Amino acid sequence: MIEETDIRIGNLVAYFDRNMEETIFPVEGVWQGYIYNTGLPLSKIPCQKANPIPLEIQWLENFDFIQGDPAHDEDPYVYSLKYNRLHSVHISCRDGIFQPVVESPSGLVPYGRPLAHVHQLQNLFHALTREDL
């Protein structure tokens, strides 16, 4: 289940269709306890039937995050996505925990809580850059 206040337009979420197959879809709207998408049956489902998508390295790669290269003195456990000429969003992935990290004079340091779901990564990226993943 996913809370209505945790998602926004553009987030990816999932639901189990009538054949019990998980279907991933982008949120096109959220209103009064329903998530809307034109590809859904009746174009909407109740929020309580929507499921968050677990965050995995594959999702970072799908969003064009690049793994650090040890040949360039980069941490191979850190995935980065450059969003403008000077700045990048960095996510450290160790033991299945996806922790946002930020550059500092002493290296990359963690901030905030670890991310567990794709929509959390999308919301963090949007909050930092005002762009959608």
Molecular structure report:
Helices cover 14% and strands 34% of the residues. The protein is an alpha+beta fold and 133 residues long. A five-stranded antiparallel sheet has the order 6-7-8-9-10. The chain has a three-stranded antiparallel sheet with strand order 3-4-5, with no helix packed on it. Strand 8 (88-94) and strand 9 form a beta hairpin.
Compact description:
This protein has helices spanning 57-62, 118-129; strands at 12-16, 22-26, 29-31, 34-36, 44-46, 66-67, 78-82, 88-94, 97-104, 107-110. It is α+β, with helices and mostly antiparallel strands and 133 residues long.
Approximately how much helix is present in the residues? 10-25%
Major beta sheet summary: 5 strands, antiparallel
Question: Any idea what the shape is?
Answer: elongated
Main sheet strand line-up: 6-7-8-9-10
Average pLDDT confidence is 93
Low-confidence stretches: none
Q: Specify the structural class.
A: alpha+beta
Rg on CA atoms, Å: 16 Å
Number of helices: 2
Q: Compute the separation of the termini in Å.
A: 22 Å
Strand share of the residues?
25-35%
DSSP strand count: 10
Order of helices and strands: EEEEEHEEEEEH
